[in-house]
Amino acid sequence: MFAGGGTTHSSTSSIASKANSSKSRDSSLGAGGGEPLGHRANSALELAGERGWDPKPASTRDRLVETARQLFLAKGYHATGIAEILREAGVNSGSLYYFFKTKEDLLLAVLDQYVEMLHPCVIAPVFSRIGDPIDRIFAVLDGYRQMLQMTECRQGCPIGNLALEMSEHSEAVREKISTNFTNWRKAIRQCLADAGERVPSSIDADKLSTFVLTVMEGAVMQARAYKSLDPFDASVAMLTDYFDRIMHAGPG
Asked: Could you give the count of Cα atoms lying within 13 Å of 139 in the half-sphere of its Cβ?
C-alpha cells in the first residue's frame, strides 16, 4: 500500500522491504567526508524550493527571516549570532532592529514562517502525487528520511530541534513550536479521517496522529545520534506493522 497511491492494503509491507533494500547503500553514514556546513544548511532549503517554497525572498524583512531560519537550522539558535545573520543576509543592524527588537522576535517570525511552509513544502507535494490517505502518511514520513539521507543524518526536524533547545527558555517560543506540531498532527489526522472505515472507530485518531508525530521525531533524533538510517527505518517499519494490525482488525 505504501509504495504508492491506489494500491491495496495487502501491499502495506512494501515500505518495510523498501527500507530494508536501501540499508546496504545508506544505513551507515559516517561523520567524515561530508559537505561543507553552508551547503548542508541549504540542502533542505533546496528541497523546499523543489516543493513549492520560494527560497529567495525579495523584501529585507523576509530576507532576514529566511537567513535566520537557515542558520538556526544548521547551527541552532544559541550558536547563531546576530552579526552572522546580518552578514549572510546582506543587511545592516539598523534594518534588523527596525523589524525585530530582539533576536527572539526574529525566532518567532521564523516559527511563523514554518507554519506557512508546512502545506507547500511538506503536505501538498505528497497529497498532489498520492491519493491513498494512509499512503500519504507514510510518504510524509519518507520526506524526513530523504532529508536525513541528503544531509548524512546531520539535519533534524527544525521544529523538533527548536523544541529541545528553546521550549524552556521562552513561553512565546514554546507556544509557536506547539502550534507547528499541532498543525502537523492535523494533517495526519485528516489522512486518518479520509481513510474512513479502514481505521477502526475504536481508534482515537487524535492520539494516533500524536503517535505518528512521536515516531517521526524520535526516529529522526536517533538517526542523527547514530549517524545511521537504521533507527528511522526500524521505527517506520514498526509503525507500518501497527497500521497493518489495526486495519486488518476491521471496523469497530
From this structure: 23
CA dihedral 157, 238, 129, 115 (to 10 degrees): -30
Q: Count the helices and strands in the chain (H runs, E runs).
A: 12, 0
Return the closest-CA partner of residue 129 out of 4, 232, 1, 238.
Answer: 4
CA distance 21 to 41: 28
The reply to whether 235 falls in a domain is: yes
Grid cell 521550549 in the structure block, residue:
167
CA distance 128 to 203: 27
What is the pTM assigned to this prediction? 0.79
The answer to whether the CB of 77 falls within 8 A of the CB of 108 is no
The tens digit of pLDDT for each residue in 95-122 reads 999 999 999 999 999 999 999 999 999 9
Q: CA-to-CA distance for 209 and 206, rounded, in angstroms?
A: 5
What pLDDT digit, counting tens, does each position of 149-178 carry?
999 999 999 999 999 999 888 999 999 999
Place of cell 553552508: 38
Read off φ and ψ for residue 28, nearest 5 degrees. -110, 110
Q: What CATH number corresponds to the domain at position 65?
A: 1.10.357.10
Cα–Cα distance between 113 and 94 in angstroms, integer?
22
Does 1 reside within a domain?
A: no
SS3 label, residue 136: helix
Does 241 reside within a domain?
Answer: yes
What is the residue type of 174? R
Q: Does a structural domain hold residue 3?
A: no
